[in-house]
Amino acid sequence: MAVVASAPGKVLMTGGYLILERPNAGLVLSTNARFYAIVKPLYDELKSDSWAWAWTDVKLTSPQMARETTYKMSLKHLLLQCTASSDSRNPFVEYALQYSVAAAYANFDSDKKDVLHKLLLKGLDITILGSNDFYSYRKQIEALGLPLSPESLATLTPFTSITLNTEESNGETSKPEVAKTGLGSSAAMTTAVVAALLNYLGVVNLSSLSEDQDQDMTGTADLDVVHAISQTAHCIAQGKVGSGFDISSAVYGSQRYVRFSPEVLSSAQGAYEGKPLEEVISEVLKGKWNHERTKFLLPPLMTLLLGEPGTGGSSTPSMVGAVKKWQKSDPQRSRDIWTKLSNANSALEKQLNLLRKLAAEHADAYQCVINSCSIRKTEEWMEQATEPRQVEIVKALLESRGSMLEIRNHMRLMGEAAGIPIEPVSQTQLLDATMNTEGVLLAGVPGAGGFDAVFAVTLGDASSTNLTKAWSSHNVLAMLVREDPRGVNLESNDPRAREITSAFSAVHVE
């Protein structure tokens, strides 16, 4: 029986760069853009020859990139041997596979290990699929002569083939192989693969996670296993221990996040120093994962929008490296900027939490304010407040905007000092125009910044439509991405079949 798991992409609203160091926090929103992993047996029956009992076959398919990679996997050492060209190897999936199987061996007694061994001898057939939102399809839309609009994006077939970057680029901010939008495809993919494998192998049972699960941060023992294995695979695959917010949001959903101490992965970093992988992963699972995560959502009647400026994305690792280099060379100024940036991040978080509180306690006043402000420029917002409670709500909205402007200013200063385009001039012009649009509360460059998609938070439905049109006039493609607070999830079937059925039903209804 096939197991299908999905994990969301993310938008880091606050905490860019600071989130690399404890105890700095970041606000990360998970989205409706999801990566899917489908795991099923490669063969109907076990192989009978004795050689096969020591090895099993693995097939990894990525239909969107027209790639298929086959491996032999040692069931003793859990090492992978690629049986074809290594050009199409995916280290994130490879480590996700090795560590998930190691977790099964580490958790099972001898009887369960026998069952696991026989299951593995049927081979593993793994397929990975990413929502279109993870990738740039501007060129395809332009080639079709369609306008740069969400409606044009919606006409694309789900899981459309991905166009590779062919432009020459040099320097530390070189474009990645695939034109991405900055939603964290590698983290979502790694998490989806780990969740599907761990569920398929019987290490965890994710069937209790409903599609409308409330992001309660308690009672998540199985998710904690998915998190630990996903973080380990992702960090080892990228060659460094990152902050981990992208994996955490892929597993648990939208949250306020403080990173784990990197030491928890020291055993995994030395995994090939003679210790069996099964023992290494056992240590990882028993390690002190001291990350902090608390529930965080946008206040009601607010919408997350992303706009793709069409510049092909940025290399986050090289930008992070440049900031770290600057910190060492100018510790005094870097501390000053980081302190101010941290204060601005905290101020925005405080105002957004206040707005959620006001929405819960004074729903009518809150809705009235949001509706009024959604069709007006910022300078007109206070004029619409006719009673004290409405004034309090508008003040919180304006304080939020002020904090966002401070965040952007300090991010720009950091980029200039480090010699990297955290908020490039083109993005500054776009964000200024965005924040001057009626009903727009916030706008910024998510995460590490650069040339990825920008984000905006709008008030009510009318302002989302206004911003989509405004972006189009600036040659910016408004994406279909929205906030979705859910984390990792088990799906009932192959997402391609579901999408085709949905499309057929929509046509039939019309």
TrEMBL record:
SUPFAM superfamilies: Ribosomal protein S5 domain 2-like. Its EC number is 2.7.4.2. Keywords: ATP-binding, Kinase, Lipid biosynthesis, Lipid metabolism, Nucleotide-binding, Steroid biosynthesis, Steroid metabolism, Transferase. Pathway: Isoprenoid biosynthesis; isopentenyl diphosphate biosynthesis via mevalonate pathway; isopentenyl diphosphate from (R)-mevalonate: step 2/3. Coiled coil: none annotated. One of its GO terms (cellular component) is peroxisome. GO terms for biological process: farnesyl diphosphate biosynthetic process, mevalonate pathway; isopentenyl diphosphate biosynthetic process, mevalonate pathway; steroid biosynthetic process. One of its GO terms (molecular function) is ATP binding. Belongs to the GHMP kinase family. Mevalonate kinase subfamily. This is phosphomevalonate kinase.
